[in-house]
Amino acid sequence: QVQLVESGGGLVQAGGSLRLSCAASGRTFNNYAMGWFRQAPGKEREFVAAINRRGGSTYYADSVKGRFTISRDNAKNTVYLQMNALKPEDTAVYYCAAGYGGSPSSRWDYMNWGQGTQVTVSS
C-alpha cells in the first residue's frame, strides 16, 4: 500500500489561488496513477483531476478545466493540484488517491486515499 498525506488547503477569496500537495510514502510512487477528488457537505465525492503514472496524460472534470492543473514529481513522490480562479463552489474537502489505472474519474478505481485537506473559498 501507499500512504498519502495532503497539504496546502486553506481559506482564500474568490478569484484566488491555492496549490495542494499530496506526499506519498510506502510502495513505489510511480507504479500509481493519481487522482484528486473533492467532497462538499451533503454531496457525493466527485472527481476533480487525474494523472497517469509518468505524468504524460491528465484528465479534468469539466467544472475545473482551464482553472486547475494536476502535476506530479516522481522523484519527490508528490502530486500537486494548482487551483486558480477559485470559486465559492470549489469549497470542499480535497482528497488525493492512488490507483493502478482503470477509469481516471472513477473513485472505485483508486485503492488508497489520504485524509483530505479543507479548501474554503469565500465570496
The rough form would be described as globular
Structural class: mainly beta
Mean pLDDT, to the nearest integer, reads: 96
Per DSSP, the total helix count is 0
Percentage of residues in DSSP E strands? over 45%
What distance lies between the first and last C-alpha atoms, to the nearest angstrom? 39 Å
Biggest sheet character: 7 strands, mixed
Radius of gyration: 13 Å
For the secondary structure, the number of strands is 11
Task: Write the H/E string, N to C.
Answer: EEEEEEEEEEE
Helical amount: under 10%
Unreliable stretches (pLDDT < 50, length at least 5) are none
Folded structure, characterized:
With 123 residues, the protein is mainly beta. The protein is 0% helix and 51% strand. The protein contains no helices and 11 strands. Strands 2, 4, 5, 6, 9, 10 and 11 form a 7-stranded mixed β-sheet that branches. Strands 1-3-8-7 form a 4-stranded antiparallel β-sheet, with no helix packed on it.
